[in-house]
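for the writeup, i need someone to sanity check this before i put it in the appendix. the sequnce is what the collaborator sent (i think, or maybe the updated version? ugh). structure was predicted straight from it, no edits. if anything looks off just tell me and ill rerun, i have time this weekend
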Amino acid sequence: MGPGPAGGMTHASGSFSRRKCLWSLPAGLSLLSFTEQARAGGQVEEPLVDSVRSALSSAIANHAPPVPEFSDTESRLAYLRWLGAMSDRLRKRKPDWQTRKEFLQTVWYESRRAGLETSLVLGLIQVESAFRKYALSRVGARGYMQVMPFWTRVLGDGDAARLFHMQTNLRFGCVILRHYLDRERGDLFMALGRYNGSRGRPEYPNAVQAARRQWEFKG
């Protein structure tokens, strides 16, 4: 795969549902209203062999800040062109420039870190949460990438509230999708179905692939 704009470098190398999800903020904050339909993540808890658990835990434990570094000026310019184009596309969903920049920078960093195409991750986020940071589904999936809380026990400290933290959520989601891709031997259709808990069915993979095309960048 060739995730993100070419040449960039970083510090670090359930079933499908048509029901509307509940969107909420952490305790003490008000409920977010929304009009878009979402397909909440439905990853299924399953035994992990020690080698996989160790590899995933190690990935999650890496706390390097999502600050991109570049080997040359052209690579940096390619990233900035990508950032500008994606920022324009995301403006209606995230009007504040700084919020938009931090989100896109983190998606770019975490997708590349996991060896995923950035457009794929953005497409998945669009389908899963419509870019809502505090998305909470009826089955308990949380955040941008609708990560199920059991993953915090498998890979982290068990604190599901952490899944509302932007980088934590994006890192978990990207690592989980990478894990499913490896399990499915690179078959993206099957990996996406596994991510959603609808393995073998076309609705969710097709939705993500359609959304993905909106975030492709040829510059």
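The chain has one domain: 8-36+46-213. Confidence is low (pLDDT under 50) at residues 1-38.
thx in advance!!
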